[in-house]
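[#protein-structures] MJ: dropping Phytocyanin domain-containing protein here for a structure pass
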Amino acid sequence: MASLFMGSCRFVLILTLFSTLQLLFVDSVEFEVGDDKGWVLPSSKNNEIYNQWASKKRFQINDTVRFKYKKDSVLVVTDAEYEKCHSSYPIFFSNNGDTIFKLDRPGLFYFISGVTGHCERGQHMIIKVLEPESPPSPGNQNSTSGTSGQSGAVGMAAIPSTIIMQFIFSFLGFLFI
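AK: finished. structure tokens for Phytocyanin domain-containing protein:
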């Protein structure tokens, strides 16, 4: 019975360590555009559905967006072409029904449907990719040294609570082996 308990503790420990490592190395996320609806012509009552969808997401560099559609296309265009809902020379074009586009830089990406009339009826989207987070600087220091009122404290980088909890559970797992 004790060996069964020891085996299950080791399994839990290995599973916890694996999930901790997975959290540390995740560097991108794939978003499915429109969630379960996909990249389709919006209903007439809500022609900003894709911009509303994108505004609820936090896109980072190296994330990908997946467009699933039938008999349509996806174009990445300039902001001027986005406003016109037309592009003769898009930055990117795909019409394979399952398009994956990598967000490879911070800033705005402009997507439109290539089917005539679809963009004007709401099948368009702007995605904002956030700037990479830089580590916090150790306080706002003045250019003159020895200024009174400055503390000697150094700012610490924030560690996500999920990583802290995984570490605690991993440590507890070692105690039961």
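MJ: nice. Helices lie at 2-25, 49-55, 79-84, 161-175.
AK: one more thing. Residues 30 and 164 are 25 Å apart (CA to CA).
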